[in-house]
Description:
This protein has 14 helices and eight strands. It is α/β, with parallel strands linked by helices. Helix 4 (148-158) runs parallel beside helix 5 and helix 8 (244-255) packs across helix 10 (284-294).
Amino acid sequence: MNTNLNSNKINLKIFVVGLFLITGLVVGFYPFIQGANAKTTHTIEQNSQLTTMMRPKIQLAILLDTSSSMSGLIDQARNQLWQVVNEFSESTRNGVKPLLEVAVYEYGNSGLSGASGYTRQVTDLTSELDQVSEALFSLTTNGGDEYCGYAISTAVANLQWSDSDSDIRAIFIAGNEPFTQGPVSFKQAIASAQGKDIAVNTIHAGSYEAGVQSGWEQGVLLAGGSYMSLDHNHQVAHVVAPQDRKIAELNAKLNDTYIPYGKDGAEKAQRQIMQDTKSNGISLGLLAKRAKSKISSMYRNTSWDLVDALEEGEVDLDELDEDQLPAEMRSMDEPSREKYVAKKAREREEIKSEILDQSKEREDYVAAAKAAAPATTVATVNDALGAAIRKQGEKKDYVFETAE
């Protein structure tokens, strides 16, 4: 009995010592375990950022003549921005969907400074497409003196163009006055674009032959881009479909899933709603096209929306100051904040799925309506941009699918 008792005591001592050692090891290594977890989380965020960085880009600079006769051209650009986005959203390069960045310039407006060649950057290259829409709706016509060479050289020099061989870089300049006007030679401007592998595409607002005679085609021959003419006074018609009202309702719900953060978050959230209102003011059909754009990978708002920003690893929710958060999140603890953002993200995906289903039904309806209507050959801004980008993208292994 005594032998067994002694044995039990020894075993107990061994157990206690062993437990003490294990506890010490766990406590000692806990900071390292925490560090490993932190590194894993950081790696996930880095991989998300790397994925975004590795996506190919389509960079477009749209240069619009805003002299007195060009209001129809501006209207076409406003009416067809979202159709252009939807076309490009169907593109891939090596199976990867590209990012879209758009800049807007106006030129030829007498209200602008002569010292700047009557040229103004309305927005820099940006992936925030609501900013592009806002820029287009802000344009007015006046005057003017149209200096195409000056406008092109300004866009080439001032924008942050990519230097990747896999990216599409393109300037689209549209107007109706001679291409050769102004203090900067268009040949010199196009040479500077070629030096950065930027294709220059020209859109003459008028007859094809008049554009040829006034230098618009010659500019393209030098630049390796595309030349197209269009009727700038043609009014773009949006087919009204039975699905449009439901899509509008879903679009409003989609906006409720955005969580504005940072000093400009609330303002940019309001801009999103305002651009919905602008599109709806033209047509429910246009709003439906915009809603489809908003569920695509090209509609990104990482600078002001927490759902997008966290998904792409651009912010750390735990490191945001309380005053950078919306009012409803400030009183939450960290786990509650994470749950709140995750809930909004799930809701967004569900609404996106519904909009996609409705959009597919709408496209079938629109296709049938177009097939039953008399054929038209009137070219518009969408045709010009779409055809040129496809031509240039195919040279860089981009694959495009047709989008209604």
